[in-house]
């Protein structure tokens, strides 16, 4: 009998993932032997692991498409960019969370370990070359997130939202897997590049394939949090401890974007006409429900949850254009959104104290009196999220709208513009509360030096990227030529 | 009738009896044990079909893990059998419909096969020395190496998540510290005090304590 060989193993291409798994195992072991007092070592090691994995990714950067593990794994410039961005996002999320967790007695090693496994899931999805890999990445990410939401054991709200998230998430994963299995049954291949060819042979308008596609879209939409699969978003954002909300609201958005790109744009690109019409419905509904319901919210975390739903609508707009320009615009939007969202949640963390959660809009009353600098940062973040020039959110919206106008969907662009005007109301309300209302308490802004410095950088990044959007646009263009 | 056929019919008959036992047994524990028995018999039928890997997995996973869990749940929860049987007549029509559907499905497959005619040629005979365990292993460790390793990471994550969510240090808990119990020495528990042998004392009790009297 012949010895089995692994076709195209190419381990070097996957060195970032291998490094990450090893780092997680080491941190997991080190954490066991640490006393409660020296828990900072886990935190430091996690940040070190992120720096290390970034170095590995940069030194293994690729120009073209490189596959490994017999096609299960794919590395390309888009993947490298998204991975580096995801490392940065997770590192910033850890640094924002540090003070908050410490003040609440939640500073445990598992938060960082689960954060890193979630990141590993994102990395796996980014480099997915086959439907199985995509699914395993989704599960790695989701399982970590379920546990993170329920992480604060003493909070009943957190446990409830974790339960909702888990049950709905399990159904969504099942839906996704069911769609994959139908597509596999009809095409006979799991590998995304072979799938693209096989779909053309089978015929993109075959009823069975469309049936499978509908299930896949439902699964993807759930992971995005697009209407009508958005029910979990407000509850989870509201119920989870704020550092976890910050985590869920940022890094997994990168994963959702790449999930849509790998499965829809790469694997099922021949069916673009079909999934375009499905995504139009999702995008329009997301923008309407997200923006209109956000107006009625008094809790900032809930408001940001609905605002996320509406932004997901915008990200979907670029993807549904089905052109390279559209994918680029969506990529730009995703990156810009992550920068803005992480700042907004970071602000809640900055204002929270032990025993006090600054997650109501009223808690921002008169922030300008207490801390003019951070009020200005929050104002920039809110303006940017609303899409006001000259902040980065404006360019993101322009790029996405340009992409759909180019494919002739002018009415859709018009709807999007009208709804972003609606959205401006609730973002500007936060600004109004900060600048024109009297403060309800006179407690000074606490927050450690790291958080202050990061928030300043974050706020300024939104402004600088808005004035000079060329750098980020160039990056996106190089990733998706 | 070859020996294989005899074995097949024997084990199939036992399987059917065991399956009937699952639904007729009054005691839920008996029902679960009947199910274990049914799994064993199906595993043997798979062995006859030369699907030895599936057969072993069925025993290991279903009998070894799933059914043990079932038994735990059945024994730990207070299952009220009488209450469970209350809805029998209400749900019977639904059950009958599903049963008829399953029979029709199986029947249609057999009927279609009959129409086409099952020929010996259609059944590919595996070469001598062919092992499907080896074939599966070769695929898992070559083509599907990456997903296989990822599944392992997923299991690790599940362990971490389960421990995070269930283990917590509660104060005031009287837990055993096994390590401390094992490493205990006699001197930690018993103090040997050297003292003079007791003598018959004639003096009254007041004078026994030497420091009390000046």
UniProtKB/TrEMBL annotation, chain A:
<feature type="transmembrane region" description="Helical">
    <location>
        <begin position="303"/>
        <end position="324"/>
    </location>
</feature>
<dbReference type="InterPro" id="IPR001750">
    <property type="entry name" value="ND/Mrp_TM"/>
</dbReference>
<comment type="similarity">
    <text>Belongs to the complex I subunit 2 family.</text>
</comment>
<keyword id="KW-0520">NAD</keyword>
<feature type="transmembrane region" description="Helical">
    <location>
        <begin position="163"/>
        <end position="187"/>
    </location>
</feature>
<dbReference type="GO" id="GO:0050136">
    <property type="term" value="F:NADH dehydrogenase (quinone) (non-electrogenic) activity"/>
</dbReference>
<feature type="transmembrane region" description="Helical">
    <location>
        <begin position="408"/>
        <end position="428"/>
    </location>
</feature>
<comment type="subunit">
    <text>NDH-1 is composed of 14 different subunits. Subunits NuoA, H, J, K, L, M, N constitute the membrane sector of the complex.</text>
</comment>
<keyword id="KW-1133">Transmembrane helix</keyword>
<dbReference type="GO" id="GO:0012505">
    <property type="term" value="C:endomembrane system"/>
</dbReference>
<feature type="transmembrane region" description="Helical">
    <location>
        <begin position="81"/>
        <end position="97"/>
    </location>
</feature>
<feature type="transmembrane region" description="Helical">
    <location>
        <begin position="277"/>
        <end position="296"/>
    </location>
</feature>
<feature type="transmembrane region" description="Helical">
    <location>
        <begin position="373"/>
        <end position="396"/>
    </location>
</feature>
<dbReference type="GO" id="GO:0048038">
    <property type="term" value="F:quinone binding"/>
</dbReference>
<keyword id="KW-0812">Transmembrane</keyword>
<feature type="transmembrane region" description="Helical">
    <location>
        <begin position="12"/>
        <end position="34"/>
    </location>
</feature>
<dbReference type="GO" id="GO:0005886">
    <property type="term" value="C:plasma membrane"/>
</dbReference>
<keyword id="KW-0830">Ubiquinone</keyword>
<dbReference type="GO" id="GO:0008137">
    <property type="term" value="F:NADH dehydrogenase (ubiquinone) activity"/>
</dbReference>
<feature type="transmembrane region" description="Helical">
    <location>
        <begin position="207"/>
        <end position="232"/>
    </location>
</feature>
<feature type="transmembrane region" description="Helical">
    <location>
        <begin position="460"/>
        <end position="480"/>
    </location>
</feature>
<dbReference type="Pfam" id="PF00361">
    <property type="entry name" value="Proton_antipo_M"/>
</dbReference>
UniProtKB/TrEMBL annotation, chain B:
<keyword id="KW-0472">Membrane</keyword>
<feature type="transmembrane region" description="Helical">
    <location>
        <begin position="55"/>
        <end position="79"/>
    </location>
</feature>
<feature type="transmembrane region" description="Helical">
    <location>
        <begin position="91"/>
        <end position="112"/>
    </location>
</feature>
<keyword id="KW-1133">Transmembrane helix</keyword>
<comment type="similarity">
    <text>Belongs to the complex I subunit 6 family.</text>
</comment>
<comment type="subunit">
    <text>Composed of 13 different subunits. Subunits NuoA, H, J, K, L, M, N constitute the membrane sector of the complex.</text>
</comment>
<dbReference type="Pfam" id="PF00499">
    <property type="entry name" value="Oxidored_q3"/>
</dbReference>
<feature type="transmembrane region" description="Helical">
    <location>
        <begin position="6"/>
        <end position="25"/>
    </location>
</feature>
<feature type="transmembrane region" description="Helical">
    <location>
        <begin position="144"/>
        <end position="165"/>
    </location>
</feature>
<protein>
    <recommendedName>
        <fullName>NADH-quinone oxidoreductase subunit J</fullName>
        <ecNumber>7.1.1.-</ecNumber>
    </recommendedName>
</protein>
<dbReference type="InterPro" id="IPR001457">
    <property type="entry name" value="NADH_UbQ/plastoQ_OxRdtase_su6"/>
</dbReference>
<feature type="transmembrane region" description="Helical">
    <location>
        <begin position="32"/>
        <end position="49"/>
    </location>
</feature>
<dbReference type="GO" id="GO:0048038">
    <property type="term" value="F:quinone binding"/>
</dbReference>
<dbReference type="GO" id="GO:0005886">
    <property type="term" value="C:plasma membrane"/>
</dbReference>
<keyword id="KW-0520">NAD</keyword>
<keyword id="KW-0812">Transmembrane</keyword>
<keyword id="KW-1003">Cell membrane</keyword>
<dbReference type="GO" id="GO:0008137">
    <property type="term" value="F:NADH dehydrogenase (ubiquinone) activity"/>
</dbReference>
<dbReference type="InterPro" id="IPR042106">
    <property type="entry name" value="Nuo/plastoQ_OxRdtase_6_NuoJ"/>
</dbReference>
<keyword id="KW-0874">Quinone</keyword>
<comment type="function">
    <text>NDH-1 shuttles electrons from NADH, via FMN and iron-sulfur (Fe-S) centers, to quinones in the respiratory chain. Couples the redox reaction to proton translocation (for every two electrons transferred, four hydrogen ions are translocated across the cytoplasmic membrane), and thus conserves the redox energy in a proton gradient.</text>
</comment>
């Amino acid at each position: 009998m012949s010895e089995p060989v692994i076709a195209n193993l190419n381990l070097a291409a996957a060195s970032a993932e291998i490094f990450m798994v090893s780092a997680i195992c080491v941190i997991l072991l080190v954490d066991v032997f640490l006393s409660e007092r020296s828990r900072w070592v886990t935190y430091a090691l996690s940040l070190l692991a992120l720096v290390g994995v970034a170095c590995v990714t940069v030194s293994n950067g690729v120009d073209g498409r490189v596959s490994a593990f017999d096609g299960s794994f794919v590395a390309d410039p888009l993947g490298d960019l998204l991975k580096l961005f995801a490392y940065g996002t997770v590192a910033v999320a850890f640094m924002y969370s540090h003070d908050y967790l410490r003040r609440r007695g939640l500073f445990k090693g598992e938060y960082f370990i689960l954060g890193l496994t979630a990141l590993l899931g994102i990395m796996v999805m980014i480099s997915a070359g086959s439907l199985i890999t995509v699914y395993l990445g989704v599960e790695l990410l989701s399982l970590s997130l379920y546990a993170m939401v329920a992480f604060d054991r003493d909070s009943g709200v957190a446990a409830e939202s974790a339960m909702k998230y888990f049950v709905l998430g399990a159904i969504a994963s099942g839906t996704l897997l069911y769609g994959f299995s139908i597509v596999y049954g009809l095409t006979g291949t799991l590998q995304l590049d072979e799938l693209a060819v096989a779909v053309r042979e089978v015929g993109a308008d075959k009823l069975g394939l469309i049936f499978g596609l509908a299930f896949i879209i439902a699964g993807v939409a759930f992971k995005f949090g697009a209407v009508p699969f958005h029910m979990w978003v407000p509850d989870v954002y509201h119920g989870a401890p704020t550092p976890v909300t910050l985590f869920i609201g940022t890094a997994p958005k990168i994963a959702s974007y790449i999930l849509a790109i790998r499965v829809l744009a790469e694997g099922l690109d021949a069916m673009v006409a079909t999934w375009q019409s499905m995504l139009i419905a999702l995008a329009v509904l997301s923008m309407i429900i997200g923006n209109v319901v956000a107006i009625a919210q008094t809790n900032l975390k809930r408001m940001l949850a609905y605002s996320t739903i509406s932004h997901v609508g915008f990200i979907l707009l670029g993807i549904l254009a089905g052109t390279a320009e559209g994918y680029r615009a969506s990529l730009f939007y995703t990156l810009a959104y992550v920068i803005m969202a992480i700042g907004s949640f970071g602000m809640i963390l900055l204002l929270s104290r032990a025993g006090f959660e600054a997650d109501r809009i009223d808690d921002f009353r008169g922030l300008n009196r207490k801390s003019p600098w951070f009020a200005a940062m929050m104002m920039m973040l809110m303006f940017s999220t609303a899409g006001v020039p000259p902040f980065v959110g404006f360019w993101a919206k322009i790029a996405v709208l340009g992409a759909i106008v180019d494919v002739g969907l002018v009415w859709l662009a018009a709807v999007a513009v009208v709804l972003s005007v609606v959205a401006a109301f609730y973002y500007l309300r936060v600004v109004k509360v900060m600048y024109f209302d009297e403060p309800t308490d006179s407690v000074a802004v606490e927050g450690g030096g790291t958080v202050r410095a990061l928030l300043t950088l974050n706020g300024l990044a939104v402004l600088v990227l808005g004035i000079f959007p060329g750098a980020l646009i160039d990056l996106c263009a190089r990733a998706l030529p | 009738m070859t020996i294989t056929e005899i074995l097949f019919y024997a084990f199939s008959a036992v399987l059917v009896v065991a399956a009937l036992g699952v639904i007729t047994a009054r005691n839920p524990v008996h029902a679960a044990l009947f199910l274990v028995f049914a799994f064993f018999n199906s595993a043997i039928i798979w062995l006859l079909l030369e699907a030895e890997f599936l057969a072993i997995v069925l025993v290991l996973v279903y009998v070894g893990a799933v059914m043990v869990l079932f038994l735990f749940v059945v024994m730990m929860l207070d299952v009220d059998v009488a209450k469970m049987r209350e809805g029998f007549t209400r749900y019977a029509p639904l059950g009958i419909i599903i049963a008829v559907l399953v029979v029709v499905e199986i029947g249609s497959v057999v009927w279609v096969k009959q129409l086409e005619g099952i020929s010996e040629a259609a059944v590919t005979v595996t070469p001598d020395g062919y092992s499907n365990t080896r074939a599966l292993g070769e695929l898992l460790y070559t083509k599907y190496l990456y997903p296989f390793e990822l599944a392992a990471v997923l299991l690790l994550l599940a362990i971490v998540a389960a421990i995070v969510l269930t283990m917590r240090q509660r104060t005031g808990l009287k837990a055993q510290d096994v390590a401390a119990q094992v490493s205990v020495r006699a001197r930690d528990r018993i103090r040997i005090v050297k003292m003079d042998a007791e003598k018959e004392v004639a003096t009254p009790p007041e004078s026994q304590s030497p420091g009390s009297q000046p």
